[in-house]
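Figure 2 data, in text form.
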Amino acid sequence: MRGLIPARVLTSPQLDTLFLGDVSYMILIDTTGHVVRDSLRRLAASDSISDSLGRAWATSGVFSPATLGGCPVMQWLRVSATTSFQIGR
């Protein structure tokens, strides 16, 4: 879309327990850069544990909202990770 500057991740949460997993989600980012409650849609997860940890990770990030013509707009964003999660330190 012409003039659209996509939403982007500013910070990802630091979790406290080591776990290796692959996850991919679509999340809806509102005009203030927050994830819209209950908007998370799983695209892929290597297993149920990585899905649970990935959901916590994906919905806790800080984002810059997308803008269109300089005005903030809501946008679906794909977030993916092939990583180790740190949970419960």
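Caption note: The mean pLDDT is 85.
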